[in-house]
Design the sequence.
C-alpha cells in the first residue's frame, strides 16, 4: 500500500482519508450499519489502517488504535455509527435508540432550505453608467457576471485614461472552464 501514496505529503493523505475515503465508506451507513456486528469492526479498521501508517510513517507493528490516537482521527466504526444515527434522525426523521437513549427527530432543528435562485435574477433595476465613470486616478475597472441560457459567464475590462489596459472574459461549460485574456 505504500507505493500508492509515494510523493504525497502526510497532510494530503489525511485530507484524502477524511474527505474522501471515510465519506465513501460511511455513505449509506443507515442501511448497512443498522446493526454493526463485531465482524465488521476489524474490516473497517483494516480499511483505515494503510492511510494511518502512511500519515504517521510508522512501523506496521503499531496498533491501529494507537495510530488513530496519534493522527487524531475518529475510528471508522464510531464514525459509521455517528453517520448512521444522524441519517436516521435528521434525514429519515425516524426515532432511534442508541445505548438506551431515545433520539427523537422533533428535538432537533431543521436545516434551512438552500438558496436556489441565481443572484442575477434579482438585479432587474441595477444599471451601470459607462458614460460617467467614477473618479479615479489612473485605472477604472468594469466587471460583469451573467447567466444566459443556463450558462454562467463573466468579464472584466480595465481602462486607463489613455485607453484600454486589459480585458478578460471567462465562461463555464458543463465540463470545462474557458478563459480568454487579451
Sequence:
Amino acid at each position: 500500500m505504500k507505493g500508492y501514496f509515494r510523493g504525497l505529503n502526510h497532510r494530503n493523505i489525511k485530507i484524502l482519508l477524511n474527505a474522501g475515503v471515510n465519506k465513501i465508506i460511511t455513505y449509506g451507513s443507515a442501511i448497512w450499519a443498522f446493526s454493526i456486528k463485531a465482524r465488521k469492526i476489524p474490516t473497517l479498521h483494516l480499511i483505515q489502517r494503510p492511510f494511518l501508517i502512511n500519515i504517521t510513517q510508522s512501523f506496521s507493528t503499531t496498533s491501529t488504535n494507537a495510530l488513530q490516537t496519534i493522527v487524531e482521527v475518529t475510528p471508522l466504526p464510531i464514525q459509521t455509527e455517528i453517520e448512521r444515527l444522524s441519517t436516521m434522525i435528521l434525514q429519515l426523521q425516524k426515532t432511534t435508540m442508541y445505548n438506551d437513549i431515545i433520539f427523537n427527530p422533533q428535538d432537533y432543528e431543521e436545516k434551512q432550505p438552500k438558496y436556489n435562485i441565481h443572484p442575477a435574477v434579482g438585479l432587474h433595476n441595477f444599471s451601470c453608467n459607462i458614460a460617467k465613470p467614477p473618479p479615479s486616478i489612473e485605472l477604472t475597472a468594469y466587471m460583469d457576471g451573467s447567466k444566459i441560457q443556463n450558462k454562467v459567464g463573466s468579464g472584466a475590462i480595465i481602462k486607463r485614461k489613455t485607453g484600454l489596459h486589459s480585458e478578460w472574459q471567462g465562461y463555464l461549460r458543463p465540463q470545462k472552464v474557458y478563459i480568454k485574456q487579451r
Observations:
- Residues 153 and 171 are 4 Å apart (CA to CA).
- The first helix runs from residue 10 to 26.
